[in-house]
Amino acid sequence: MTDSFQVKNPIYPIFSILASILIFVGSLLLAKSFWGGIFLALEFVILVLFGYWRACFFMLPFTLVYSGLFSLVFYFASGRDFSFAAQMAVRFGGVALACVPSLSLPPVALVRNLTALRCPRLVTLGMLITLSFVPVLASEIRQVRSAMRTRGATSFYKPVVLYRAFLIPLIVRLVNISDTLTLSVETRAFVSDGAKPSVYKRVKVSAKDVGFLVAFLMIFSCCSVFAHFGKIA
Question: Which residue from 90, 127, 138 is spatially nearest to 105, judged by alpha carbons?
């Protein structure tokens, strides 16, 4: 979703979304087992090997800090139950790791993939705008804050400064962006009828994509089986 985390050769978009779902679901299902931590560690290695190392290592400190803090809170809230705190750490870690495949996915590739699969155009256009809005919003916030520092308005604790120097300029800039998007859609003759859409560059499945999905499914299946037999034993 952000340019700084996008990989050179991204995985097939549908497979990336499926990987995020598998990580999220697997961390919840396996949290009560020893294999929950093994599952997250193996999926982390797979993501690094398939080119997601930049997003993985960027998310790693954040994941460790916020998982550790919340696990510590649950540790004391549960009466110093270390097992429960470890389960929460696996759940929080899974949520953070599940963001990596989606975070590194180019929005255009996802939209092209969904369009080729005959997804409704209103859905694909809305998804493209939504996914592209996050980096745009971050860029606009940086520009407004830079303008504030240039004018000597650096305090966010004063309501007047926050409202007049930050919120109003940011809202105006976002309104201008929305107007530009509207004109862009109109000038490109966008219609929502049943006309067959065209795809400028089709996203195809490669051997690397299949290997990525197979590795994810194997790790998910093996850890689930081992955790199940561990409960029986």
Answer: 127
Under a CB-based contact definition with an 8 Å cutoff, are residues 158 and 167 in contact?
Answer: no
Instruction: Give this prediction's pTM.
Output: 0.71
- The tokens describing 169, both together, are 């300029």
Is residue 1 over pLDDT 70? no
Is the CB of residue 67 less than 8 Å from the CB of residue 89? yes
Residues 18, 213: Cα–Cα separation, whole Å: 8
Q: How far is the C-alpha of 132 from the C-alpha of 52, rounded, in Å?
A: 20
HSE, CB side, 13 Å, CA atoms: give it for residue 68: 6
The DSSP annotation for 50-85 comes to IIIHHHHHHHHHHHHHHHHHHHHHHHHHTTS-HHHH
Average pLDDT over residues 78-86: 82
* Amino acid identity for residue 69 in this structure: L
Residue 226 has pLDDT above 50, yes or no: yes
